[in-house]
């Protein structure tokens, strides 16, 4: 009989306290959501106030040292200094260095860099990779690379062949990494295109030999255009069976990443406004929609009064500490966003000067290295944040994309390649539209070397129909 009893085991786990959870939430929250967070904190913390008045904190602190003990004096002096710096920050609407000790800064950065919350598709996939028990570090690295190469649908934004040529990674290694990625949730993530995405989902459902699988595999265009009678004749099956199979296919998810994409707001207020100062482009934080906070003088007066009971003092101290942490977290959020925006502008100067066709490839690892934070911090900081540029308002993640090399050796972003494809299609002869193969050849003449499959992927991402469906007979 097995020995039964109680045993203790020790495990290491990074606990996330309520304040640090709040700090992570503040970093990732879009401005409108952050306003709600601030409003909620004001409702539960009486020490917090909106709009700092002209009177300084020192004017609210009693002059008589007998009215409070040295501990309270030190705490109020620290609050006075923090409030002055915070008001100066809002007055300038520019980023200042956070007022915290080196130990506090290191602890904050360690937690920001180490705690992974599965709130984005990339974080969700990385968490699965960490638990997949893959012993080959090169395979892990290649899977991480593919995770960083996914578009908003959850598809690879370039073919494995193109990525192998562009980055000098053996194609077999990338195929192995892709197989691992496609075993993760959501089903279909890491696919090359819609066809592969739907086939993977059907296979996971045990329908590899079904009519639905055959329709997706061989007749996707006919299926998309609901040519059910033609399909019935081609396959020699009743029309009703084709209709039922099509209905089943419609229940599959054509965009595996959709549940991880934040719902778009009808109204977008930019977090950053790009301004030209002399010959330089600089990011200016837009704090118009972000309420400024301060700590209530009335409660600091109460803390400084000798007549206040110990229970009252403890309550006020607790609320002041919570308020200080909230203000510092907001300050740190603004600093991080500003630093990231500064690096984006440094990389995308040509885009600012000439437009979207000149967007350059940029990845989060580059910016993270230059800012001095972890890639997950960059991912959180740019989530749902927008920047107003001379060419329109763009979400910060718009500026991060992989790319291809031109014949001259220059890097060109995927967005620029998509724009080039759109321009070619815009001027094509309507009676004889350009095929994906022809588009690839025309791009090659422009010095942009991409495979036909990549052209098809970008065309689909632009919502442009294939050539035979663009043809005009009039």
Could you provide a short overview of the structure?
Residues 314-471 form the RNA polymerase sigma factor 54 DNA-binding domain. This protein has 474 residues and is α+β, with helices and mostly antiparallel strands.
Describe the 3D structure:
- The protein contains 22 helices and eight strands.
- The chain has 474 residues and is α+β, with helices and mostly antiparallel strands.
- Strands 3-2-5-6 form a four-stranded mixed sheet. Strands 1-4 form a two-stranded antiparallel ribbon.
- The protein is globular.
- The chain starts with 17 loop residues before the first helix and ends with a helix.
- About 7% of the residues have low confidence.
Q: Into which percentage range does the β-strand content fall?
A: 5-15%
Which spans have pLDDT < 50 for at least 5 consecutive residues?
A: 52-69, 93-100, 114-118
SS element count, helices: 22
Structural class: alpha+beta
**Total strand segments:** 8
From the N-terminal CA to the C-terminal CA, the straight-line distance is: 86 Å
Radius of gyration: 28 Å
**Mean residue pLDDT:** 79
Strand order of the largest sheet: 3-2-5-6
Instruction: Specify the biggest β-sheet.
Output: 4 strands, mixed
N-to-C series of helices and strands = HHEHHHHHHHHHHHEEEHHHHHEEEEHHHH
Family: Belongs to the sigma-54 factor family.
Biased composition (Acidic residues): 56-67
Pfam families: Sigma54_AID, Sigma54_CBD, Sigma54_DBD
Keywords: DNA-binding, DNA-directed RNA polymerase, Nucleotidyltransferase, Sigma factor, Transcription, Transcription regulation, Transferase
